[in-house]
Amino acid sequence: MTPSYCLFFQPAAQQPNPCAAAPVVGPCKGTFPRWYYDQNAGECKHFLYGGCQGNHNNFLQESDCVSECIQKSEN
Description:
The chain starts with a helix and ends with a helix. By secondary structure, it is an alpha+beta fold. The protein is built from two helices and two strands; from the N terminus they run αββα. A hairpin with a 4-residue loop joins strand 1 and strand 2 (43-49). Residues 19-69 form the BPTI/Kunitz inhibitor domain. Pfam families: Kunitz_BPTI. InterPro entries: Kunitz_BPTI, Kunitz_BPTI_sf, Prtase_inh_Kunz-CS.
């Protein structure tokens, strides 16, 4: 196995939890409507993503955020 293969195919337990990170707008000047999970409020909230250098707490639809961060935590 090559090192890049090992990094790309990490087991799910080793991947960072996207729901635990604060949303990152990024330095670019776009205004893309996105959703993020707010751990303090326990809900998904809307934000405007700049288009670059964000993180994984960045969902296209509210339903994606809910299924990843709320429904999985309830199971």
